[in-house]
Fold this sequence. Notes:
With 266 residues, the protein is of the alpha/beta class. It is built from 6 helices and 14 strands. The chain has helices spanning 13-25, 49-57, 75-78, 127-139, 155-165, 211-220, and strands at 2-6, 8-9, 33-37, 62-64, 85-86, 100-104, 109-116, 145-151, 171-175, 185-186, 192-194, 199-202, 234-243, 249-259. Strands 1, 2, 3, 4, 5, 12, 13 and 14 form an 8-stranded mixed β-sheet that branches. A 6-stranded mixed β-sheet has the order 6-7-8-9-11-10, covered by helices on one side. The longest helix has 13 residues, at 13-25. The protein starts with a strand and ends in a 7-residue tail after the last strand. 44% of the residues are buried.
Amino acid sequence: MRLLFIGDMVGPASIDLAEMALRRLRREAAFDLVIANGENVSVRNGLAESEYRALLAIGVDVVTLGNHAWDNRDIYNYIDDAGRLVRPFNYPPGTPGRGWCLVDTGKHQVAVLAAMGNALCSALPSPFLGIEGVLAEIKAEGIRHIVVDIHAEATSEKVTLGYFLDGQVSAVLGTHTHVPTADARLLPAGTAYQTDVGMTGPYESVIGLDIDLAKARFTTQRPSRYRQAPAWPGVFHATEVGLNGAGQAVDIQTHQFILNEEGGLL
């Protein structure tokens, strides 16, 4: 089976951008599962219910979240009922939502698990401390196809988690930093890995942020109100992984498109 993971989506227009890119990719390949990190889709980050529904409508099967999960307060109105929305598992007990979900692709049942790092990123418990217990729960249901979104700042933490889970899960794919890394590979025991899948959002930006605002922040060293960059042209980053029947990764490749508002390649 083949899965596609779309990197951090930034801004409402990223939904249209992803739809255009998916249409292009599906000319060449069929995907059994599409996952997207959607925690920055809203104008001021977070994810509204209407945006979550729009992602499902364009063919995204599972939406993962990270440290901006709660920025749009609409999340509290629907997260408990959103079966394809996954926030990091290592939030404290009682946190709304779920840390993993199960999807039947017609070929295999696939578990999608979100984790958040704590090195330079959050004050949550380290994902290393609890993830094996979650995996044991998943595997007790007979699930062998497992995808982990590790939302973290430190590359060392992500790489270590990849090796820590090598052979236990199908793929460990990194999000949060919005810049794709050139290390997509198969680890020795059969887990697909990439430190960061990249960003789907404004191409002329500083990881999605308005360029002039970013320059002002760094030159003045003063805080300023967040503002996303103009939506177009947009850049689409995604990583494709092939899995065998045992849940092992057999190949991994990355995709990048730079598109204008009409869907043309730049």
